[in-house]
Design brief:
Elements lengths: L18 H29 L11 H30 L8 H44 L1 H8 L1 H7 L4 H4 L4 H8 L5 H16 L8 H15 L3 H56 L3
Helix pairs in contact: 1-2, 1-3, 2-3, 2-10, 3-4, 3-10, 4-8, 5-10, 7-9, 8-9, 9-10
Length: 283
């Protein structure tokens, strides 16, 4: 009698997706992104000074510089994460070269996607905490929150003319101050008008609101009605300019964010192919 021994020569199938390598590369990319963003914040503080006499950096230039740095950060961090993913992924001995190249590229893209989703989740959690605190403070005192948002404009609007207050119109202004409505109530009312104007599609303050603001300014500051009208018009122009500047900065940063995400995905994919080639000894 002859015993027959059967030897299995087929190896177990290897998964086409190496998730441990993808997760490791994604974490490396996310951590390196945080490091570069912290470095960028430090560099920004080093070139911006609160003292007068320093070179003026316009908001458009600042947004452009921030966008370029964001794109460079995305490329560097994604390339590092993609390369780590390519080096750590499992070997596919039975796969053809073209399939290996595709899998390496896909691994880099998946590592970039994991890092992006991880960063978005962390930022969303932080934003939820911050917005929750802001909402709680606003719900406790909505008028005070609105006043803080427009404090510089309100300071300009209600800046008193002390010369007029101490001369001919001083008695009239003092009588208004002694009335039942205090300055804080007028500032809150003016803040609501300015916030409503900035947050709506109107290009200017309504006529009744402008006349009401001019009356408050004239009563509180000692200015003549004509001077109060001019001050309201100046504050309205400042509010319109601030809203337009914020819109343009947001638009530029959005474009740069999209560009940096595309560049990051491309860098991660290419770096993963290089790392995979080095892993298999093909480079």
């Amino acid at each position: 009698m002859v015993d027959t021994v059967i030897v299995e020569t087929d190896t177990a199938p290897v998964s086409a997706v190496s998730w441990p390598a993808i997760i490791a590369g994604g974490f490396v990319a996310a951590a390196f992104t945080l490091l570069l963003l912290a470095l960028g914040a430090g560099l920004g503080f080093s070139v911006v000074s609160p003292w007068s006499g320093m070179p003026d950096i316009s908001t458009a230039k600042a947004a452009t510089v921030a966008g370029i740095y964001m794109a460079v950060t995305a490329v560097m961090a994604s390339a590092l994460g993609g390369y780590i993913t390519g080096r750590l992924r499992t070997r596919w001995p039975q796969a053809p070269v073209n399939e290996v190249y595709f899998r390496d590229t896909a691994h880099g893209l998946l590592a970039w996607a994991f890092a992006t989703v991880l960063g978005a989740a962390l930022l969303a959690s932080a934003a939820t905490i911050v917005s929750g605190g802001v909402a709680a403070g606003a719900s406790q005192d909505p008028a005070a929150a609105a006043t803080r948002l427009t404090a510089p404009l309100l300071d300009h609007l209600f800046r008193p003319d002390y010369r007029a207050l101490t001369e001919g119109t001083g008695q009239r202004a003092a009588g208004v101050f002694a009335g039942g409505r205090d300055l804080a109530a007028d500032r809150e009312a003016a803040a609501r008008i300015l916030l409503g104007f900035r947050d709506s599609t109107r290009v200017e303050i309504a006529g009744e609101d402008r006349q009401y603001l001019a009356q408050m300014v004239a009563a509180r500051t000692g200015l003549t009605p004509e001077e109060a009208q001019r001050r309201v018009a100046a504050v309205e122009a400042d509010a319109r300019a601030a809203a337009d500047t914020a819109r343009r900065i947001g638009m530029h940063l959005s474009f740069w964010l999209v560009a940096s995400m595309f560049l990051g995905a491309l860098a991660a994919s290419l770096a993963a192919t290089e790392g995979g080639a080095a892993r298999d000894g093909r480079s």
